[in-house]
Amino acid sequence: MGFRKDFLWGGATAANQCEGGYDQGGRGLANVDLAPAGKDRFPVILGEMKMFDFDEDHYYPAKEGIDMYHRFKEDIALFAEMGFKTYRLSIAWSRIFPKGDEKEPNEQGLTFYEDLFLECQKYGIEPLVTITHFDCPMHLVEEYGAWRNRKLVGFYENLCRVIFNRYKGLVKYWLTFNEINMILHAPFMGAGLYFEEGENKEQIKYQAAHHELLASAIATKIAHEVDPENKVGCMLAAGTNYAYSCKPEDVWAAKKADRENYFFIDVQSRGEYPAYALKEMARNGIEIEMETGDAELLKAHTVDFISFSYYSSRVQTTDPKLLEQTAGNIFASVKNPYLEASEWGWQIDPLGLRVTMNDLYDRYQKPLFIVENGLGAVDVPDENGYVEDDYRIAYLKAHIQAMKDAVELDGVDLLGYTTWGCIDLVSAGTGEMSKRYGFIYVDRDNEGNGTLNRTKKKSFDWYKQVIASNGENL
User: Fold this and answer.
1) Of 364, 343, 335, residue with least CA distance to 268
2) Would 3 be classed as within a structural domain?
3) Cβ pair 135, 99 in contact under 8 A
4) Is 211 helix (H, G, I), strand (E, B) or coil?
5) Partners of 243 in the beta sheet?
6) What value, to the nearest 5°, has the Cα angle with vertex 456 and ends 86 and 394?
7) Which residues form the active site (predicted)?
8) Is residue 1 part of a domain?
9) Domain count, the chain
10) Is the pTM above the cut of 0.85?
11) With the CA atoms of 189, 357, 303 and 241 taken in that order, what torsion angle do they form, in degrees rounded to the nearest 10?
12) Domain residues for 249?
């Protein structure tokens, strides 16, 4: 018994990393547009450096991305050629509500996504739509302080009502917030949070998280009301934490690190704040303001499935001498001496994916969906734009095998698998184009030069055969 017959193979992108067209079709400015390439990127996405508009001194790669706004038909045709059953993409909130707090949506934005979904449907590709992949209209950041303000729950609800009704019958798989735990690690990128001098950052982050969790529950409620066929998932940046040694303190450090990430999903999947989180918040003097009915809402509208990104496992220790950190997806971790690493220092651990899947399935007993997994690497194309990316094939092959083991040998219920950046796009972490994940090479460099031409890499045909064989032919 391999993968289910209706297994959803595909790839994933995010609007702010590929769409471009930042000022077209009536779209408004969003937080994600304002993350510059270069050394100031991290201070901006962490909410420590104020950048509420473009300036002359920085390059902003999200402005144009890979121009999918104008080229989505070409790109979807390539995905269809690979045999995609699903395509995970995100909606740019400021395309539908340019400021975020309008009563009426922007028709041009609605039409753009409708055309995109119809294009997917033409090829039998099921859209998997992330409602918010870090996007927050800048008007909501400046006027309301972004998600720290409870009013955003209402604005998000308005967005959801509009898109669920408009795309009924076109989309049935939805994710409420991408990597919701990122609010703790990259608050401006994750949720539009910028901190003024002297503010209690932890208090603000957890209050904002409460608002997002409420919004997620409301979205789930509306989705099910509008169309009982709708399936709604949550999404976390996953990767099990290993103890560096069998020293009990290391084991405890790993457990605590896991819980920090599970906390959000515990609420979205089980419908209540876990005891350990309430204790931790109380110890740290964090008091979440809840209104009457909040607890009932969270309890009544839990998600249908758990989706997650997996790039690597992590390691925790209490030994100060061992705290040499690896690079990681915003999450630094202690180096694991047993693993190889990518060119960006991310440690490669296929078995860790199986471990993570089992941890999540044991914890929640809900179907899983791997919506991001892949290898960021420097690709060197030949004169025809062809890339022989055997390293990417090897990475994906090992991870798909681990995923298969979790399904066949461990009984994990898995709905589908979408590789991250199925077409080269702008890196969320570093803002580079040179950190490529795709099966399709896009002629674009870190400074924004290039033809934007699309060419198939070696991995394109490899993934095509994986899908055609439902994962049997790796």
Assistant:
1) 364
2) no
3) no
4) helix
5) 316
6) 75
7) 372
8) no
9) 1
10) yes
11) -50
12) 8-468
| CATH number of the domain within which 72 lies | 3.20.20.80
* Cα 31 from Cα 179, distance rounded (Å): 16
**What is the C-alpha separation between 296 and 185, in angstroms, rounded?**
28
148-178 burial string, b = 16+ CB within 10 Å, else e?
Answer: bbbebbebbbbbbbbbbebbeebbbbbbbbb
Question: CA-to-CA distance for 393 and 380, rounded, in angstroms?
Answer: 15
The single residue listed with the structure tokens 């303001």 is 289
264's tokens:
């959000």
H/E segment holding residue 154: helix 151-166
Return the residue matching tokens 């997994």: 373
Token pair, residue 298, equals 């969270």
pLDDT in tens, the chain (474 residues): 789 999 999 999 999 999 999 999 999 999 999 999 999 999 999 999 999 999 999 999 999 999 999 999 999 999 999 999 999 999 999 999 999 999 999 999 999 999 999 999 999 999 999 999 999 999 999 999 999 999 999 999 999 999 999 999 999 999 999 999 999 999 999 999 999 999 999 999 999 999 999 999 999 999 999 999 999 999 999 999 999 999 999 999 999 999 998 999 999 999 999 999 999 999 999 999 999 999 999 999 999 999 999 999 999 999 877 765 555 555 567 889 999 988 888 899 999 999 999 999 999 999 999 999 999 999 999 999 899 999 999 999 999 999 999 999 999 999 999 999 999 999 998 999 999 999 999 999 999 999 999 999 999 999 999 999 999 999
E-strand ranges in 102-142 read: 126-132
In a domain, residue 209? The reply is yes
Rg (CA), the chain: 21
- Catalogue the active-site residues: 372
Which pair of structure tokens corresponds to residue 282? 């109380």
Residue 191 belongs to a domain = yes
Residue 368: strand, helix, or coil: strand
Tokens found for residue 169? 């019958």
